[in-house]
Amino acid sequence: MTSDFEYPELQLFINGEWRQTSHDMAVVNPATEAEIGRVPVATQSDLDDALAAAQTGFELWSQQSPKHRSDVVRAAAALMRERQDEIAHAITAEHGKPFRQAQLEVIRGCEFFEWDAGEAMRTYGRVIPSGPGIKYIVHHQPIGPVAAFSPWNFPMSQPARKIAGAVASGCSIILKAAEETPAGAMHIAKAFADVGLPPGVLNLVWGKPADISSYLIPDDRINLVAFTGSTAVGKHLTGIASDNMTPVLMELGGHAPVIVCEDTDVHAAATTSAIRKMRNAGQVCTSPTRFFVHDKVFEEFIDVFTTRCAETVVGDGMEPGVEMGPLAHDRRVGVMEDLVNDAVDVGSNLLTGGKPIDRTGYFFEPTVIANVPDHAKVMQIEPFGPLAIVNSVGSLDEAIAQANSVPYGLAAYGFTNRSDYADRMVDRVEAGNLSINTLEASLPETPFGGVKSSGYGREGGAEGLSHYTVVKNVSHSVNVV
Q1: So where are the chain's domains?
Q2: Do domains 12-252+454-473 and 257-443 have the same CATH topology?
């Protein structure tokens, strides 16, 4: 694939203005290991400016009508749709995912904006029945300036979730986007600037994550912390926020189980699962990873699944036909090797893959390991890479117990044609998102979030703006009492 695309010049966006700083960091293409840009590092002075701008921006934006806010968000989304190829090229260059998957990510990000733009018109209150001479009225009002933190695995759609929820609900936001993959968030800020979003409503910074979070979150002007990332970091940020009684919205790690019952179409389930497992090189918090397959269909499933995983076309995301790109950075390669070696050392069967690919870039083979004991590291630690675990079980009850055996509960999947099996999974599987006979876990119109150590709160759906608003009850008497 040829293109005259150039990676964008990265700048902070504060109070409606673009700015550079005296310090920056390299952005590296993980498929070529070449530096493609420099991301500016925000100073304390930059953060002070962002906090002041967010406060001023909130005071203005929260007073705008929901219809006006909705129109601005829709206009920005329309611009991003027009620019989807430009944005997708940047995402593929900095992240490595195949270009078509990057295009789909841009479209999904636009859908998040469009959905929340509609929800801005539906933050309904209510009138509570009361006695004569008094009214009880419930209002939903914007919570205030938001400090948000987005991860590197989806450079455009993850920032989109945070910005869409904040801006549509009438809040201002300071987004600390990922330094490894910064261009998606910058393209979002550019679109909003181009459609006339008032200064200070959206502010974009980068830098050392611990420095920025420890400075922004304790500030009294921050009224909500929204974070997507690892459970360990989410717990740490929640602790900082708790000192100020600042609410949090946390979408944290997962370790998604897949239950394959004996009555399902095994070939279809295995093929679909293999394709989805290797999407984004497995760097997805909802990636299907721990497969618990009924022993009656275990051999058939593992044969089809392993074959399809091994056939995955791996390469530079800009090359035609590539299904899986590199891991996003070199650190992930070492983690993958460690998890595979540990699993083999404790008696697991390595069926395909298991090592880095001998070429330039952070490539790792699509990997399947079977019969993995519970004490293997990978059974407790989300691999966040192209690694799948396939174990046999003797019953649905055993599969559910295995699915629930980790402290995470973000996404879970099941394959069955029996309604009683489906009902049992709905009732007993511990996950914020359960998908049966499909591997789709997150849509703009559905609430997304986890239970247990996978987080708190929901993004998307009718529930998506609830964390960006506060509930105010008004008791209004016609007489002074």
Answers
A1: 12-252+454-473, 257-443
A2: no
Confirm whether 285 is a catalytic residue: yes
- Active-site annotation holds for 110: no
Q: Report strand pairing: 146-149 vs 224-228.
A: parallel
Q: By three-state DSSP, how is residue 42 classified?
A: coil
CA distance 416 to 261: 5
Q: Distance of CA 20 to CAs 45, 96, 152, 163, 222, Å?
A: 12, 26, 21, 22, 24
Q: Which of 180, 285, 323, 365 is catalytic?
A: 285
Look at residues 54, 67, 408 and name the one whose alpha carbon lies nearest to residue 224: 54
- The pTM for the full model equals 0.96
Q: Is 443 exposed, middle or buried (0-12, 13-18, 19+ CB in 10 A)?
A: middle
Query: 12-252+454-473 in CATH: which number?
Result: 3.40.605.10
For the domain 257-443, what is the CATH superfamily, name and number? Aldehyde Dehydrogenase; Chain A, domain 2 (3.40.309.10)
CA angle 124, 173, 223 (to 5 degrees): 70
- Tell me the backbone φ, ψ of residue 423, rounded to 5 degrees: -60, -40
Options 105, 111, 251, 365, the catalytic residue: 251
Say how far apart CA 15 and CA 31 lie, in whole Å.
Answer: 35
pLDDT tens, position by position, for the chain (481 residues)? 445 789 999 999 999 999 999 999 999 999 999 999 999 999 999 999 999 999 999 999 999 999 999 999 999 999 999 999 999 999 999 999 999 999 999 999 999 999 999 999 999 999 999 999 999 999 999 999 999 999 999 999 999 999 999 999 999 999 999 999 999 999 999 999 999 999 999 999 999 999 999 999 999 999 999 999 999 999 999 999 999 999 999 999 999 999 999 999 999 999 999 999 999 999 999 999 999 999 999 999 999 999 999 999 999 999 999 999 999 999 999 999 999 999 999 999 999 999 999 999 999 999 999 999 999 999 999 999 999 999 999 999 999 999 999 999 999 999 999 999 999 999 999 999 999 999 998 999 999 999 999 999 999 999 999 999 999 999 999 887 6
